[in-house]
Sequence to fold (119 residues):
Amino acid sequence: QVQLAESGGGLVQPGGSLRLSCAASAISTRFYTMAWYRQAPGKERELVATITTGGSTNYADSVKGRFTISRDNAKKAVYLQMSSLKPEDTAVYYCNAIASILGTKYDYWGQGTQVTVSS
Fold:
């Protein structure tokens, strides 16, 4: 059974940093585009950052220059380093793995980890 397990969330003051981790099981992440999404209370889930199998990255405008996504295929993991955090970054952060393999689409989600930015 495929599982994506996020960790590293918590309470942090504005201007602080957090590093989120997502560990995958039962899939080989090297075949997947990995992403982080977030969902704030009362808002729709939004894409935060993606990293392709080749290592290309893309970020939402709201986090550019502050967040960095990375991956370690040997550890089946993806990370999100978050710096200069703002209260508006408060949300549940979700890990996503997506791939199209031999014509079949695979799309997996983690359960999420809460990030709260508050003084």
